[in-house]
Amino acid sequence: MEYQAQLRFLRMSPRKLRRVGELVVGNGVDEALDALLVTPKAAARAIARVVKSAASNAIAREGSAKIKSEDLFIRSITVDSGPTLKRIRPASMGRAFRIRRRTSHLKVVIEARRSETDRRKT
């Protein structure tokens, strides 16, 4: 079963988020949070927040008796670009340079692995 969480209009460029997101795809939720905790990038905090939210969504939907956080792993992290905020920086001789402040939409999909006890029952 898939569970997801998303963060929209994050004030960080998609390129920065994708670099950190590639580190944790395919890992378990606990391992990913540990890796993000020691990653010295600002994007790691935003991704950790969304991973925690997705894990909470999974546990809330299925119940804590059926699913544990150890059984969850990150299936995919999708980073799309959001709207770009256009700003102006004054330059010499009356000119103006454009500054593009980029935003992102972050989506984390996690999936539950079947535990050993579930495999034995079937």
Fold and architecture overview:
The protein has 122 residues and is an alpha+beta fold. The protein has one domain (2-115): Ribosomal protein L22/L17 (Ribosomal Protein L22, Chain A). Helix content is 39%, strand content 33%. The protein is built from four helices and five strands. It has helices at residues 14-24, 29-38, 42-62, 116-121, and strands spanning 2-10, 72-81, 85-90, 96-101, 104-112. The strands form two sheets. Strands 1-5-2 form a three-stranded antiparallel beta sheet. The chain has a two-stranded antiparallel ribbon with strand order 3-4. Strand 3 (85-90) and strand 4 form a beta hairpin. Helix 2 (29-38) packs antiparallel against helix 3 (42-62). It is elongated. The model has no long low-confidence stretch (mean pLDDT 91).
